[in-house]
Amino acid sequence: MATSSAYLSCPATSATGKKHVFPNGSPGFLVFGGTRLSNRLVTRKSVIRADLDSMVSDMSTNAPKGLFPPEPEHYRGPKLKVAIIGAGLAGMSTAVELLDQGHEVDIYESRTFIGGKVGSFVDRRGNHIEMGLHVFFGCYNNLFRLLKKVGAEKNLLVKEHTHTFVNKGGEIGELDFRFPVGAPLHGINAFLSTNQLKIYDKARNAVALALSPVVRALVDPDGALQQIRDLDNVSFSEWFLSKGGTRASIQRMWDPVAYALGFIDCDNMSARCMLTIFALFATKTEASLLRMLKGSPDVYLSGPIKKYIMDKGGRFHLRWGCREVLYETSSDGSMYVSGLAMSKATQKKIVKADAYVAACDVPGIKRLVPQKWRELEFFDNIYKLVGVPVVTVQLRYNGWVTELQDLERSRQLKRAAGLDNLLYTPDADFSCFADLALASPDDYYIEGQGSLLQCVLTPGDPYMPLSNDEIIKRVTKQGLNT
Ligand SMILES: Cc1cc2nc3c(=O)[nH]c(=O)nc-3n(C[C@H](O)[C@H](O)[C@H](O)COP(=O)(O)OP(=O)(O)OC[C@H]3O[C@@H](n4cnc5c(N)ncnc54)[C@H](O)[C@@H]3O)c2cc1C
To answer: Which residues form the Amine oxidase domain (predicted)?
Structure first.
């Protein structure tokens, strides 16, 4: 990190672009940091690309055996004053790392609450309202390290190692990874024994996977990931069908999974994205194992991270939005960030720091990148990312709606009953859902009340113009059908 002038870094957020889809997982951020935004940055771009590639490679080859990756090397330079835009996971995890390295950190967040897409707030009636349903895969090593650091690692509840599909009529399909032997055998068994696909589709599915680089990943993870990266411009559907997979497999299994991972279907999701995840599942027994928070994110995730940041002297500035990134141009033509123009309602101020981090969502960063910077391909590429509208609905029931076996149990309100896991469905506009009263009971199980379904509607566009009542009506109807 240079001290003389500012740099700007930008997070990899969960934006998706047609056939340029980033997995939604860890809140890593891309440091495109020379100190100056000049031709030198263009040169450095290849370094950034290489860094990203090695991050992907690390996941399969060098990822530590345990849950927690090693600490980054200790920084020995002078203390910096850093301004971070955005208090989502990317902004907060950046703050944690910077504070640990001895820097001074201020986080500016335009919303009234922290956490960004994984945030939640309490409404006037005391309900915890989440921005979206969150599950944590066993390969989220960086997130686990962050949670351990802030003392929140016990806030994750491990779910059964199976991926459950709820089909029309309440019929359950499983992709069941529970097996006495770990990777890759547990995965092979899961795919061969799944009842979510008919025998013919299952056989064709097996052929496609056998012909995929995932098999190579078992013996040559680096080579396999290079092969997978080359499939970035091919949709998963195109790739899968070309290898003998069937449309029925896509509809019954892979679309719900793709929607849950990236909010788009297999026709739009890149083969690279899906196959990277499959490679992780195939090589790491834990990767496909899901965890969910004990309760709401504000209490069990953002809360402990915020406390850690504040205990270390970091400061949050809520409702302070960055309106403009200010920059200057040196005589040699290179540009550098000189400040941030901030506002909170009618108040305005300029924030100056030694270093700046933009940890915004994609629409947010698109509004902030100065027009001039778009001459650099790296910044211009941001505008190729297309956001995907997603609607999250929380519905409380006076019974247990995922208790599909025992009518009596589903109707009583003395104790929780039903499916305690992330649930996928190919038969509703919400591709994945969970009963939070069971899966994250600490804030969501309420005595005398039943299920609290959280449903993720993807694509969310058709629902955006509808009233809350109409959305509830439609989701409830579909919920009853599945
Ligand atoms: C419904 C849903 C379900 C999801 N489920 C999962 C899951 O199960 N597993 C998983 O790994 N991931 C999941 N994700 C993705 C995950 O939530 C995101 O990848 C992650 O939270 C992104 O964090 P971030 O900090 O990069 O961005 P964000 O969370 O979007 O945070 C960006 C923050 O920057 C602020 N901001 C933007 N512009 C400005 C500005 N100009 N000034 C000040 N502040 C600004 C925003 O208000 C926001 O708080 C899900 C996402 C959604 C929407």
So the answer is: 89-478
How far is it, in rounded angstroms, from Cα 204 to Cα 244?
6
Q: What is the value of pTM for the model shown? A: 0.85
Q: How far is the CA of 387 from the centre of ligand 1 (A)?
A: 12
Q: How far is the CA of 214 from the centre of ligand 1 (A)?
A: 29
Confidence band (pLDDT; 50, 70, 90) for 420? Answer: very high
Concatenating the DSSP letter of every residue in 409-447 gives HHH--SS--S--S-EE-SSSSEEEEEEHHHHSHHHH--T
pLDDT for the residue 45: 29
For 480, residues 6+ apart whose C-beta sits below 8 A from its C-beta are none
Pocket test for ligand 1, best of 293, 301, 305, 361 (most atoms within 8 A of CB): 361
Q: Is the CB of 88 under 6 A from ligand 1?
A: yes
Calpha distance 114→53 (Å, rounded): 30
**Radius of gyration of the chain from its Cα atoms, rounded to whole angstroms:** 23
Question: Over 50: is that where the pLDDT of 276 sits?
Answer: yes
Say how far apart CA 389 and CA 465 lie, in whole Å: 12
Tell me: pLDDT of 480 over 80: no
| Non-local CB neighbours of 130 within 8 Å, separated by 6+ positions | 119, 120, 296, 297, 392, 394, 454
Residues 6+ apart with CB under 8 A from 260: 422, 424, 431, 432, 456
User: How are beta strands 355-358 and 8-11 bridged, if at all?
Assistant: parallel
218 confidence band (pLDDT: 50, 70, 90): confident
Residue whose Cα lies nearest atom 7 of ligand 1: it is 134
- The CA distance from 139 to 58, in Å, is 12
What is the distance in A from the centroid of ligand 1 to the CA of 382?
16
Q: What element of type H or E holds 251?
A: none
